[in-house]
User: Which sequence fits this backbone?
C-alpha cells in the first residue's frame, strides 16, 4: 500500500506541474477592428499567435458599431477604428486607455464598379457628376451618418459638388465590406469604398480615386481598452513592428508610425 500511495503521489505531482503550461497556452486577446482591416489583420493575428502563443479573437464591423459595443461593456482588449471620431468617442466614454493610442494607418477612398461594368477611368474632380454616371443604378457606401467610409464619401462629394444630385441614389450599408459586397454582386452599379477593400475583392474594379484633399485625412487609430489584458501591450508592440508594417503595406494601407523593431 505504501508503494501504491507513493506512485499516486508522484502522479499527482506530475499532473500538477503540467498544469501551468497548459493554462499559459490558453491566453487570448479580443480585438475589435474596423471591417476594412479584416484581411490584413487576420494575417497579422496569425503571425502574432505563432510568435507569442496568445490567441487572437477578432471582431470586425463598422467602427461606430464597435465603439458602442465597447461602451456597453463588450470584452474587447484592443480597438482599431477607421477614423479618429469614433476613437475620440470611445475616449470620451472612458473605455480607452488613452496613453496607448496611436495613429497607425492611412487609406484612400475609391469609386468602384462590378468587374464586368462598362464604366472605366472616371476623372473625379470638381464638377464630377456621379448621379449621371450612376444612371438608374444605385451607389453603395457605408451609412454616411455613422460609418467612417460613408462619412468620408459624403464629405468628398460635397466638396466636389456632386452630393446633392447623387444622394437619392445611395444605398447605405452597415459597413464598408457590406457596401463592397453589394457592388461585387451587381446589386449596386457603383460604390465608394477604401482602396484596400477594392484590392481584396476580385468581383470589383477601381474606376476612379478621390483626391486626398476632397475629404478629411483617413486615419486609423489603435488603442488598448481600459479593461485590456496585460497581453494587449505585446499586441500593440507587434502592430508597431516591421513585420506588421510589411503585411499592412502589402494590403495597401499607409503605415503612419515608425516601426519600433
Assistant:
Amino acid at each position: 500500500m505504501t508503494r501504491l500511495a507513493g506512485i499516486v503521489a508522484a502522479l499527482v505531482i506530475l499532473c500538477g506541474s503540467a498544469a501551468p503550461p497548459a493554462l499559459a497556452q490558453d491566453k487570448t486577446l479580443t480585438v475589435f477592428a474596423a471591417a476594412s482591416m479584416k484581411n490584413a489583420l487576420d494575417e497579422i493575428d496569425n503571425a502574432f499567435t505563432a510568435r507569442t502563443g496568445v490567441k487572437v479573437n477578432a471582431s470586425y464591423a463598422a467602427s461606430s458599431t464597435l465603439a458602442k459595443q465597447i461602451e456597453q461593456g463588450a470584452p474587447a482588449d484592443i480597438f482599431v477604428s477607421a477614423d479618429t471620431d469614433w476613437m475620440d468617442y470611445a475616449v470620451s466614454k472612458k473605455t480607452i486607455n488613452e496613453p496607448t493610442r496611436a495613429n497607425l494607418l492611412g487609406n484612400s477612398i475609391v469609386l468602384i464598379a462590378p468587374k464586368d461594368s462598362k464604366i472605366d477611368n472616371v476623372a473625379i474632380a470638381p464638377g464630377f457628376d456621379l448621379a449621371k454616371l450612376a444612371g438608374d443604378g444605385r451607389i453603395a457606401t457605408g451609412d454616411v451618418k455613422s460609418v467612417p467610409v460613408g462619412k468620408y464619401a459624403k464629405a468628398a462629394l460635397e466638396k466636389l459638388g456632386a452630393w446633392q444630385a447623387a444622394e437619392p441614389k445611395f444605398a447605405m450599408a452597415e459597413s464598408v465590406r457590406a457596401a463592397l459586397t453589394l457592388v461585387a454582386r451587381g446589386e449596386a452599379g457603383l460604390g465608394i469604398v477604401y482602396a484596400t477593400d477594392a484590392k481584396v475583392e476580385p468581383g470589383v474594379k477601381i474606376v476612379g480615386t478621390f483626391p486626398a484633399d476632397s475629404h478629411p485625412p483617413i486615419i486609423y487609430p489603435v488603442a488598448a481598452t481600459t479593461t485590456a489584458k496585460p497581453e494587449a501591450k505585446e499586441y500593440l508592440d507587434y502592430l508597431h513592428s516591421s513585420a506588421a508594417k510589411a503585411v499592412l503595406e502589402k494590403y495597401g494601407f499607409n503605415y503612419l508610425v515608425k516601426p519600433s523593431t
Confidence is low (pLDDT under 50) at residues 10-24. The chain is about 45% helix and 20% strand. The radius of gyration is 23 Å. Residues 2-106+218-255 form a domain with the D-Maltodextrin-Binding Protein; domain 2 fold (CATH 3.40.190.10).
